[in-house]
Amino acid sequence: KKKGGGDSKRFGYRTTRSVKKEREALALLKDLFIPFGGNVDLKNPDVSILLFEGLGDGDEKILTRKVADGPKVSIINPNTRHCVTNTPLCPTTSYIMCNLGRIKSHSTILDPYAGSCSLLLASSLIESETTTVGIEIANENGINRTSIMTDFYSRDLTPPKSLLCGDFRNETIRDMARESIGNVPFDVILTDPPYGIREKQEWTLSSSNYPWSLCHTNPLLDIVKIVAMDLERGKPLICLNGGGRLVVFVPCTSQQNIYDLLPAREQLSDAMLSLEVMVEQRLNDSLSRWLVVFESK
């Protein structure tokens, strides 16, 4: 744990490499390494072995063999992008959300609170033959859509089919999103919706960028209600029969119960969705965010 602002403790911290600690750890593992024998080729090793520490409260260390490299998400790091916003979603988290959405070739993906399009960038990074659409309520003063497109083109990634400026809760905007993919439902809705922090900051800076009323609703409940409404009017927003997924973040304070923040069983039934996965990420000692996955029935 590391001290953050005020009395809150932030979980996780960055540190520099300690050669001294590495040498001490290797000395402790000497008996394990001796049976290998021979020379060590650091540039082209036959086997890569990694040592992890800091995974528990004590002085625990884990020795593990490297079997594969992860995605090169650093190419979409916020500090490398043309579109700059206050609270961009980190690339690793974006990639995880795409995996939970089961992104594959020819998937159609909607982000109803797109922001700088971190999730759509990750989708294109995973699979080039995806069709993505973003909806963002901020106008060009808040979100530069030209810069967003540059972020895709400069990385040779498939750009969004459409970037719509408007409120996702507006029926016309949703119809435009469907029209951009041929008037069919989306395979996946991926989003990290606003819950008030970013919007409060931007409202203070410029009241023309974000409507303050957006902060007085629960975006997840809005999404589920909208999915049900669009089903009722014969324009389903998400694929049915187990083919569609909704992946969304939900913040939860230490005074709240996450289940009180989720849609009721009746609301999920109306939207033909079922709760599949819930994973907590603790941000500090008073706030968590839950990654929640719903699947269509």
Automatic annotation (TrEMBL):
This protein's record includes keyword Methyltransferase: yes
Keyword Methyltransferase tagged: yes
PROSITE patterns (alphabetical): N6_MTASE
Recorded superkingdom: Eukaryota
UniProt GO molecular function: methyltransferase activity; nucleic acid binding
Gene3D superfamilies: Vaccinia Virus protein VP39
GO CC aspect terms: cytoplasm; tRNA methyltransferase complex
Pfam families: UPF0020
Domain Ribosomal RNA large subunit methyltransferase K/L-like methyltransferase: 78-203
Protein name: Ribosomal RNA large subunit methyltransferase K/L-like methyltransferase domain-containing protein
